[in-house]
Amino acid sequence: MALGTVRFAWVCFLAGVTLGQAFIEEIFQQFAGGGGGGQQFHFQMGGDNVFEMGGGGGRRANAPKWPKGVSDKISKKFSWMKGTEWNWNNWRNVKFSKDGTFDAPTNDCARGQCKWSANKGKVFILWGQAGLHELEIEGELPTEQDPAKLAGLMMRGRRVSDNDKCHARFERVYDHEAAALDKDLYEILGLQDDADEADIKKVYRKLSIKYHPDKNPDAESKKKFGEIRDAYEILNDPDKKILYDTGGMEAVKKAEKGEVEKGEDSKANLDVSLDDLYNGGARQAHITRRVVCRGCRVKPDSPKCQGCQRCPNEVRMVNRQVGPGMFMQQQEEVQSKEKCKQDSTALDAQIERGMRDGESLTFPRMTDQRPGMLPGNLILNLRVSKHPVFERRGDDLHMNTQISLKEALLGWSKIIRHMDGRTLEIGTKSTQSVTKPFQVLRVKGEGMPLRDDPASFGDLYIKVEVIFPKQLTSSQQDIAAKIFT
Q1: What is the pLDDT of residues 294-330, one digit of tens each?
Q2: CA 193 – CA 294 distance, rounded (Å)
Q3: Looking at residue 323, what is its pLDDT?
Q4: Is 331 helix (H, G, I), strand (E, B) or coil?
Q5: What is the spatial distance between Cα 117 and Cα 132, in angstroms, rounded to a whole number?
Q6: Biggest alpha carbon distance in the chain?
Q7: Alpha carbons 396 and 379: distance in angstroms, whole number
Q8: CA angle, 91 as apex, 90 and 93 as ends, to 5°?
Q9: Using one digit for the tens of pLDDT, what is the confidence trace for 410-429?
Q10: Inter-residue contact 169 to 153 (CB < 8 Å)
Q11: Is 247 exposed, middle or buried (0-12, 13-18, 19+ CB in 10 A)?
C-alpha cells in the first residue's frame, strides 16, 4: 500500500472515531437529560451548522419564547437560587445564572436557548426545544443563600409537554455575589424609594446607634449593623446611589471593577439678566429628562408606574458559541427589563456675584438616565440679556445720559437707581465744571463686583450727550454774543 494511501486511511479512521464519540455523547445527553426532549437529535458539524431530526425539518431552531401566562420574572423570594448549581435527574449538573440564563450541557443551552424564572411559588425552566419545565421546592422555601442550609434541598416537577417527571438536587453555590445583587438597600434602612440625602443620613444615624455592636454583641445584631453600614455607604455616595437606583447592585459591583460606562455630557443655555450677575443668588432652571423608574422594578404594579415605558436597549457582554466547545465573548444589544419615564426637574442654579456671560454651571449626573450607566453632566451656559441702562465691559459698567446745553454750561445733577436698588447721584454741580459733548465721567467703585473678590468693584463710566437747541431767537443770540465776548 502506498504511503499516501496509508496516511489517508489513518486520518479517516481518527476522524471517524472523533465524530462517533461526539455522536454518542450527544445521544446520551438527549436521552438522559429530560430537557433535551427525548425524541429529537441534534447533529453538529463544524461551526454553527446544526441539523435536527424528529420534528426539526432540517431547519435551525428559533429562540424559544415564554408561553402565555408564564412570567419571565425572578421574584425576590427566589433570589437565593441565583448563582446555584443543581444535579438534574441524577445525570449532569445545571446552573441557574443571575441574569435568568439556564445552563445545561445540551446544544440548546449552548446556543443560548435556555432560560429560567421563578415566581408564584414555582420555578420555570424554558429548556430550548424541549419546552417548559415546571418545578416546586420541597419543604420550606429558603430565605437566604446559605450553602449549609441548602444542602440536600430538592425540587420536583414535570416537563409540561408530556408530563415527564423531573427533579433536581442542590449541589453548590458557584456565584457568591449573584444573590447579594438583589439586596434592597432602601428596605434595609426602612426608607421610601424617593428618600433624599437628608432622610438617608437621619435614618442611618438612628439605626447605627440602635444596632451598634457595642450595645448589641449578639451575632444577629452584628449582621444587621453590617447590612445597615453597607447600605449607607452606597446610598450616601452620589455615583453609587444613582447606579444602584438605575441598575441595582450589579451596576454598583461593575463600577467597583471599573466596568461602568458614563453617558455623554449635555449643554444648554440659561438666560439671566445683568442684575442676576451683579447681585448673585439662585435661579431655577427647569429640565425634562428620561429617568429609570426604580419603583417599577421593586413594585411593577404600583400606580406610580402607569406612565412608565420600557427603557432603551442595553449593551451587555454575552458568551456565544462559535464552534464545538468554542465560545466567544461579545457585545450584544439586548432589550432592557427596566422601565423609564420622563421626569420634570427644577434645578437651583447658584449664580455667584461677578459671573460673566458664557460662564457655565455644572450639574453632575443630570442628563438622561440609562440602566446601569452613570449619567453625564448637564452644563448650563449663562446667556446674559441686554440691560436697559447698563452695559458691562469687563468688570466696569458703562451707561449713557443726556443733558441740555444749559446744564452742560451751568452744571447738572441726576439720580439713577443701581442694580442693587441703591440710588446714586451723578453730575457736575458740585464741581461747577462745564461738560463737553460726549464727555465720559468716571464713578469709582460703582461697576461690577469682582468674581474673586465680591467686596471689590469695577468702575462706572457715564458718557454724556449734550443736546443743543435747534435754533436761537435773535434776543438769545444777542445774549450769547455778549457772554462769549
Answers
A1: 878 777 777 778 788 889 888 776 666 666 666 677 7
A2: 7
A3: 63
A4: strand
A5: 11
A6: 143
A7: 27
A8: 100
A9: 999 999 999 999 999 999 98
A10: yes
A11: buried
